[in-house]
Design brief:
This is Glucosamine-6-phosphate deaminase. By secondary structure, the protein is an alpha/beta fold. Bound molecules: fructose -6-phosphate.
Length: 241
């Protein structure tokens, strides 16, 4: 794991955006793995800026998002589809973007088809991840086992509470989501994990120093040979100097 500590959120976001921009310059038809949540917002804003400056192009890009809420229509302003359009897709010339479809009847078939679509696109070249306070990545919550493939997840009370800041009340937060599995994430050729703020410091320390343990899903990243962790100083505060 390579760890980069930045002064603040802005610097973290810029560094991550430059890594993604470099990827697109080197391989214009890259397959990107994308995340939602507050953490990558700054990175997306910087990528939009670089696109407007003519430095990067998304015409040949394919993207796959990590996750989507289950049974939340895409028109809902809290759906991850809505988030991605608001922060990235509506502002760049991407045509081929994919999110798991949480509105299907046969969710098992959708999970299988999502894996196949990633495979058919040639696999993910670079995956951006945020991390939950409990160490979740995507919506892979602490569990007794690592779940390998895209699957339907029951969100934990801690994640529901964390996400309730975006909804009118905790009751409105969906209780399930469709998420790439740990195996799906580990198949990405390169992984960039971003974390900002004191609240993530414990999860980051466990990710870096802890035993590989499905109770802290991000520890599985220790098994990957190309992970860059980009942190602000607060998120890095529990790392040894
Ligand atoms: C979002 C996702 C989640 C978030 C995590 C952190 O697609 O997969 O794992 O990355 O919950 O969320 P924020 O960035 O809002 O702290």
């Amino acid at each position: 794991m390579k760890i980069l500590v930045c002064k603040d959120y802005a610097q973290m976001s810029e560094k991550a955006a430059r890594i993604f921009a470099a990827q697109l310059i080197l391989k214009p038809n890259s397959v990107l793995g994308l995340a939602t949540g507050s953490t990558p917002e700054g990175m997306y804003a910087s990528l939009v800026e670089k696109y407007n400056e003519g430095k990067i192009d998304f015409a040949d890009v394919t993207s796959f998002n990590l996750d989507e809420y289950y049974q939340l229509p895409v028109e809902n302003d809290q759906s991850y589809d809505y988030f991605m359009k608001k922060h990235l897709f509506n502002h760049v010339n991407i045509e081929n973007f994919n999110l798991p479809n949480g509105m299907v009847e046969d969710v098992e078939a959708e999970c299988k088809a999502y894996e196949e679509r990633i495979e058919a696109a040639g696999g993910i070249d670079i995956q951006v991840l945020g991390i939950g306070k409990n160490g979740h990545i995507g919506f892979n919550e602490p569990d007794s086992v690592f779940i390998k493939n895209t699957h339907l997840v029951e969100l934990t009370p801690s994640t529901i509470e964390a996400n309730s800041r975006f909804f009118a009340s905790e009751e409105e937060v969906p209780k399930k989501a469709v998420s790439m599995g740990i195996g799906t994430i580990l198949k990405s050729k390169k992984i960039v994990l971003l974390a900002s703020g004191e609240g993530k410091a414990d999860a980051i320390a466990k990710t870096v120093y802890g035993d590989i343990d499905p109770m802290v899903p991000a520890t599985a990243l220790q098994l990957h040979n190309d992970v860059i962790i980009i942190l602000d100083e607060a998120a890095a505060s529990q790392l040894k100097p």
